[in-house]
Structures are given as structure tokens and as C-alpha cells.
Amino acid sequence: MKAPLQSLRGLMIAFLALFLTVTVAAGLGSYFGTLSMIVALVDARIRAEADVLAPPGARIDLRALTQRMETMARQRDTGDLGLLLFDARGRRIAGNARFRCELPLGFSSLSGRDAIEDLSAGRVLVRDLDGRLRLAIFAETEPIDHYFAVRPEIHLVGSGAIIVVVLAGLLLFRRLVARRIDEMCRTGDGGAFDRQAAAFNAMLDRIGTLVAEIRNVPNDISHELCTPLARLRNELAAIEHRPDAIPVASALHAATAQADALLEMFSALLRIASIESRASREAFALLRLDQLAARWPRWSSPLPRKPRIALTCALRQPSSMSATGRC
């Protein structure tokens, strides 16, 4: 069984999973990163405008503060800001906005639930001036009403379009590669794959030739040694029957027996080589081992007559092998 990343399909699935993960993470990161950046920029703007209206540590002049607020409300670059000056009890003193709920000190977020006219989302900064007065400045974080409600759909459609295009490209790529491989397997075009296949075929042919040559080495050695060894055996046998060789007849007989053993060994090597080359397979026949085992107790019937000898034969299933009577 192939490993998941060793096939074209497995690589495509792994790439697609990684691509989907990165695309979703990039979409979410872009969406929330944009929101946090807008909030940070709006907070920086309203803090700067609050410092212009009421510089930290400066003595508060109510009339001058009110005039600066009216001037800021009439200017083009600050006319979109919401301004409210109220006392510690929440009573409005000046400004162009009203709040229904009590606002905490510092930065906070606004939404449509706060019922502020022409405001769907924003940020507000409430600053305590001298313990008696409080200044609230707010600005919108949405350039268009309900823009942030539609923004997730925009990200979803954009990411979905990218995913569809990449998925279609992967499927088309897989189809083209599979078709190309199939065409090359059936016809071949003389390209790099064909040259590589030819090189592999040549290498395999060379390996097969070398293996055959190595396999013939014992056969050649046996052929070369059989004839001189047979001559030596015959010479020893002839010397053994000479009258003057009677003192060393036993030694000559032992040497002749050793020569016979070597001749039998070389004959066995030649027989093995001929069987491996399938030159003598015609003499092979099918031998039923279960029938042979069934006859073995009858052939060994004299043995159980001796004490402490018992013969049993158990046949689990029929079996056979190829064998020959030649050796």
C-alpha cells in the first residue's frame, strides 16, 4: 500500500488541505486585523481631538471650551465627530450629540443599540476634566452604515472564488498529468521519460546477463574439472591393480574413493545447473506427498517389531511437488 504522499491524489489532497487552512486563516486574519486597525486609528484620532479641546493638566474655561466645540463641529475635517459636554450627574451642557445610557470613563464601543442618529458602529472617549465636567468624543468606525455586517460576506465570496479556482486548477492539472502519463505508457514520444525507461531497461538487461554468467560459473568449473578428475581416478584404479602396488593398495583405494566422491559432487553441480536452466524439466513429474506418506508405514513394517518403536502417519491435507528419479 502506498503512503498518502507517494501518489498524485495524496499530494493533491495534502496541498488542498494546506491551501484551505492558509486561505481561511488569511481571511480571518485580514478581517479581524482590519477591524482592530480601524479601532486603533479611530481611538488615536479622538484622543488627539480631545487633547485639542481640553489639553491634559490645563485649567478648564467652560465658555472657551464650548466655543472650541462649536468651532470644531462647523469645520469640515472634524464635523463628523460627536461632541458632548456634561456634568457629573449626566446633564448635557453643550455638544451635538445625546446619549441615553451612562458612558464609562475611557474608551468604549458604540453600536446601533445606543440609538445615536446616523451611527451604526463607533468608538467613544470619555474624559474627566476637573471632577465636575466630563467630555465625550465619538467617531464612526464604519464609513458606510452596516458595512461591517456585509464585510464577512465579501471575504467569504472572495475566499470562495479563490478556492474554486485553485480546486478547478488542481483537478485539471491532475487530469492532464494522468492523461499524459497514460499516453506515454501506450506510445512514448522519445522524451525524457522514454530515455529514462530505455536506460532502466538496458540496466536490467545487463543485470540479467551478469546473473546468468555468475550462475554458469559452477557449471563451467564442473565441466572443466570432470574430465581431468576422471582421468586421475582411472590412473589410480589402474595403478591399484598392478602387482608392485600391493604395499600401497589400501592408500590407492582410499584415493580412488575420494576421486569418486569428487566426481559425484561435480555431477550434482551439473545436475543443479541443468535444472536451474530448465533444460531437464521434461523429466520432472508430479509427486503426491500424501500418497507417499500413506505408503511409508507399510514400507517400514519390520521396524515396529522391535521394542519401543511406534509408527504413526497423520495427513492433514493433500500436497504435491515436482520431482524426478534422475540424480
UniProtKB/TrEMBL annotation:
- What EC designation does it have? 2.7.13.3
Kind of enzyme, top EC level? transferase
Q: Which InterPro entries match?
A: HisK_dim/P_sf, TCS_sensor_his_kinase
**A GO molecular-function term, please?**
phosphorelay sensor kinase activity
Q: Which SUPFAM superfamilies does this chain map to? A: Homodimeric domain of signal transducing histidine kinase
Instruction: State a GO cellular component annotated for this protein.
Output: plasma membrane
Q: Which PANTHER family match?
A: HISTIDINE KINASE (PTHR45436:SF8), SENSOR HISTIDINE KINASE YKOH (PTHR45436)
Q: Would you tell me the protein name for this molecule?
A: histidine kinase
Q: Lineage from the top down?
A: Bacteria, Pseudomonadati, Pseudomonadota, Alphaproteobacteria, Sphingomonadales
